[in-house]
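[audit] Reproducing an earlier prediction to check determinism. Same input, same settings, fresh worker. If the tokens differ from the archived copy the diff job will pick it up downstream; this log only records the rerun itself.
[audit] input (298 residues):
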Amino acid sequence: MIRRLTVPNLRIADPAGGASIGDMTTRDNELGAFLRASRSRVEPGDAGLAGGVSGRRVHGLRREEVAVLAGVSADYYARLEQGRERNPSAQVINALGHALRLAPEAREHLFRLAGLNPRLGPDSPRDLVHPSLLRMLETFAQAAAYVLGPALEVLAANPIADALLSPFGTERNMPRVLFTDPRAKEVFADWEVQLSSCVYALRLNAGRFPDDAEITGLVAELREASPQFRALWADHDVAGLTRKFKVFVHPEVGRVELTYQTFEVVDAPGQQLLVGTPEPGSRSEEALTYLASMAEPA
């Protein structure tokens, strides 16, 4: 039987205390911060520029080089980074995405930061898991399947996924689990890999849903609670939850290796269906069978 999970109330920092997704400067100029972080990751040679890195005091491209590659003036690009230019065209943003060698998801994030993508309205049904999707979870009898919301909280899970996450009690927000629950290091064998993957996916969603109070509150909370989260969030890197290999060390069944596929829920923007499957005939498959039998009603 599929259990629809109740997502606990987020512990949102008191606005009077000043906590937010970033400090005031970063919050008011997320586009500039993202551009600066992105150009710092592109070396001149990778962008087809001669001269190498000799004599450079910092890594990455200079502002002037990004401007040349994107076909805009150096002054205009500087104003974009500084937040003095707030209305770039789609053509300019597209050119910057190419100049900075951004992956498709990062380019999408750039467009959204520039205000060039539609935002979800306040009445979006993204926090509801459609009954047909709940029924679909039941069909994955030998896989761990669950639905994530925009703040990467598990909205619904099949019995196997529920059993895999049982060491964390009732907490089902994955960023909070990874960064604040000491058991996460024991359960996730590749814990450090999961940290960066989680933060980059959360930042991608923060760009997609900039007015989402749950994401904003979660980020404020974790920036306060976890130095590791603060450092990864400051990277301004984005990546979606594509195919992933995850290793669990469950207290009941031991090591479980799963390959996850992620599917966007088209009629509920922000929701994603994740399905983790083991190699046929493997010990991990046996472990999932055992977990499924434990979850069956007596």
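[audit] rerun output stored. Observation attached for the diff report: The longest strand covers residues 254-264.
[audit] end
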